[in-house]
From TrEMBL:
Cellular localisation: Mitochondrion
Keywords, in A-Z order: Mitochondrion, Transit peptide, Tricarboxylic acid cycle
GO MF entries: magnesium ion binding; NAD binding; oxidoreductase activity, acting on the CH-OH group of donors, NAD or NADP as acceptor
Gene source species: Catharus ustulatus (Russet-backed thrush)
Protein name, entry field: Isocitrate dehydrogenase (NAD(+)) 3 non-catalytic subunit beta
GO CC annotation, single: mitochondrion
Family the UniProt entry places it in: Belongs to the isocitrate and isopropylmalate dehydrogenases family.
GO biological process: isocitrate metabolic process; tricarboxylic acid cycle
UniProt lineage: Eukaryota, Metazoa, Chordata, Craniata, Vertebrata
Length: 343
């Protein structure tokens, strides 16, 4: 659970401090939505806000350190999308990536679940994608070995593969899930993905109650489209996870309705939007993701209100095929927060 205020001036007694990074694009608008809903629901959270944006040139090493200091206190953060420019400016690692490394956010969890009342091609889906997110192809180790030849290193280590595998099996155990599927390309990358796969197999033996199977990434993509119901928890290296996350989000309604969560041994970071969320996105109120460890009551209250609005089907944001704005949606959620008080 979260600790209560540690007497720092920002947190009154009994409130939780949460670090907030609105980021770019729809981020700030959605953060505003979260603040409105939390205020209306008297959710005892104070936000410690930091602005970090590469495209608006407000990103610096010093800012990053301030975010890390804030995290050391709050242990929980809410972040928008930190847009990473394509062009190379002398540093290969994006700020997004550097923050992950500084906090050692090794596990990314995406819970892909159908929203009751919102019809998509597949309904009643409920699967979880867990990816390692500190190494693999995201190691920022690229160089031009000879003119016109780039070497881009994908790093796979035993330690990090075992750690993510253990995380996946622990998650499955805690959430009462029956099966973990390791996704890989070990038929081609025999050593790298081979090591990842080997680590998953070793860890699986320590969890005899949970079914374990393996699947090659290309087949996995086809299976996700043809019969996503066969999956429960999937665990994979960085890049595959990033791609499969988005494919799976598309199965239940797109980038706006699937929040991401990242964990280290001591921190939890909740991402409001996936890459490419359109304007007028459902504010993915991260309470759905259980941001509020010690706030069961508030968490359920907000989450129920969001589900009610979606199920009612009257207020639909553009990403869900409607014409409502994010603020219409927020207003509707707030109206549903305390239905039992009459009105």
């Amino acid at each position: 659970g979260l600790r209560t205020g540690t007497g720092s001036d920002s947190s009154a007694e009994g409130t939780f401090q949460v670090t907030m990074l609105p980021g770019d694009g729809v981020g700030p608008e959605l953060m505003h939505a979260v603040k409105e809903v939390f205020k209306a629901g008297n959710v005892p959270v104070t936000f410690d806000e930091h602005h970090l944006s590469e495209v608006q040139n407000t990103a610096s090493e010093e800012k990053l350190d301030r975010v890390v200091d804030s995290m050391k206190e709050s242990k929980v953060a809410l972040i928008g999308k930190i847009h990473t420019p394509m062009e190379y400016k002398g540093d290969l690692a994006s700020y997004d990536m550097r923050l992950r490394r500084k906090l050692d956010l090794f596990a990314n969890v995406v819970h892909v679940k159908s929203l009751p009342g919102y019809q998509t091609r597949h309904n009643n889906l409920d699967l979880v994608i867990i990816r390692e997110q500190t190494e693999g192809e995201y190691s920022s180790l690229e160089h031009e070995s000879v003119k016109g030849v780039i070497e881009c290193l994908k790093i796979i280590t035993r330690a990090k593969s075992q750690r993510i595998a253990k995380f996946a099996f622990d998650y499955a155990t805690k959430k009462g899930r029956a099966k973990v599927t390791a996704v890989h390309k070990a038929n081609i990358m025999k050593l790298g993905d081979g090591l990842f796969l080997q680590c998953c197999k070793e860890v699986a033996e320590l969890y005899p109650k949970i079914k374990f199977d393996t699947m090659i990434i290309d087949n996995c993509c086809m299976q996700l489209v043809q019969n996503p119901y066969q999956f429960d928890v999937l665990v994979m290296p960085n890049l595959y996870g990033n791609i499969v996350d988005n494919l799976a989000a598309g199965l239940v309604g797109g980038a706006g309705v699937v929040p991401g969560e990242s964990y280290s041994a001591e921190y939890a970071v909740f991402e409001l939007v996936r890459r490419g969320s359109p304007r007028g996105t459902v504010p993915n109120l991260p309470v759905r993701a259980g941001i509020l460890g010690g706030l069961e009551y508030h968490s359920n209250m907000v989450s129920d209100a969001v589900k009610k609005v979606i199920k009612g089907g009257k207020v639909r944001t553009r990403d869900l095929g409607g014409y409502s704005t994010t603020s219409d949606f927020v207003k509707s959620v707030i109206d549903n927060l305390h239905p039992h008080y009459g009105a």
